[in-house]
Fold this protein.
Amino acid sequence: LDPKTGSTLWCFQTQSSISVGSPATSQGLIFVVDTCTTLFAVDARDGTCRWRAALPHAISSPPVYARGLVLVASETDGIFAHDARDGALVWHRDLGQLVHFCGLLVV
């Protein structure tokens, strides 16, 4: 939305609704997860998709940006860290149990 007028500047469509919580933002990108388990990086200026990354299972926390990474927690597979520049998986940590977050993943 335009902060001065409230009018729509652009719209980004996902295959399904946006998943848990608020998006993360950094360096002109907005990071969101949809309920089809896809992580998106959207350009904040014009709404174009810069990259998308498939996630293996449902996500239990909103995305978090930290030190060039976008992190998400899966309900069954632990924590995933993706490169904020291109969406490549940098690392994955299996926590060995179901992961349920009621808020933000803290890094």
About this structure: The longest strand covers residues 38-43. The chain has a mean pLDDT of 85. Strands lie at 24-26, 29-33, 38-43, 49-54, 64-66, 69-74, 78-83, 89-93.
